[in-house]
Sequence to fold (89 residues):
Amino acid sequence: MATARLDIRLDEEIKAKAEKASALLGLKSLTEYIVRLMDEDSTQVISEHESIKVDANVFDQFMIACDEAKAPNKALLDAVAFTKSSDFK
Fold:
């Protein structure tokens, strides 16, 4: 059961269009329509900002570089230790 509340103000024209879209989709209420839109859109936005997409050839080049990488030097190891001790995420 939902417990959070969101109050918004919008143009009558936007509200009317949203109510019509909600009815055309067979949803029970405007609230159900808005919640559905917010959930779908926020999921997509978060996904787009928390992932990286690269072309296959770029990924292949990256993997080759990783395979050919040498052992980390002291500066890199120190940087890793610093970030772990500083709670970087």
